[in-house]
Amino acid sequence: MLVSAKEMMTKALAGKYAVGQFNINNLEWTKAILLTAQELQSPVILGVSEGAGKYMTGFKTVAAMVKAMDEELGITVPVALHLDHGTYEGCYKCVKAGFSSIMFDGSHYPFEENLAKSTELVHVADQLGLSIECEVGSIGGEEDGVVGMGECADPDECKTIADLGVTMLAAGIGNIHGKYPANWPGLSFETLAAIKEKVGDMPLVLHGGTGIPDDMIKKAISLGVAKINVNTECQLSFQEATRKYIEEGKDLQGKGFDPRKLLNPGFEAIKAKVKEKMELFGSVGKA
Ligand code: 13P
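That is the input. Now the predicted structure with 1,3-dihydroxyacetonephosphate docked in place:
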């Protein structure tokens, strides 16, 4: 069931759990995540970065694939198809392609420009009944060539953007995309608490979910995080399982070269990773 993320965010915030956003790259990724969500009766958000959208030949292809797969697999749990770190133009493309949710990442603009563009896009999303995520304070690390320094968001700026009526707000609290460096100081709960204090009942989004220790995830949820994004960890799980299959020479045995066999260990590894995260985030049985 393709839906906006509005209701799942409200329920997650009230129930003190978080809904996972898992980024998709292809058919196997999408199928693994949808099947796991259904098995665990968990709401789920499928994230699509602009780069992944381009890789899959465009947002229209992605939306058509997700809608058809959702129907043919008989998925009944709420699924949001969400643009991840969208540009202004990308948001319009996804709206047109039939996404149910968008993220506008204007965090690299001067604040006034971020505010102006976010205001316009919140209005567009509202009119179409879509959910919208906006960002204040860039997330560290690299994603699709965009490098953020991981600055902590300004709580007053968070309030200004939250007051526009965004569905959920991504605010930098020292989180980084990709693997965390050994000297990473951890999430800034002081910043998270200060933001929460200003924005009240606004679902907060924790990007860079890969590699954040479980206790920090739980504390972040207790402080108002209702959506957690995970991408790299699924990629690493897929890579590890695929490497093992080939290193064990299984692709050379019988029909082991068949792509359906070759990609299966990676597919199962994504399922296991998504299950582990849904259990940690507390979204199991919340569909
Ligand atoms: P990771 O790749 O670090 O899990 O981050 C994912 C993310 O935040 C997508 O927006």
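Residues 111-128 form the longest helix (18 residues).
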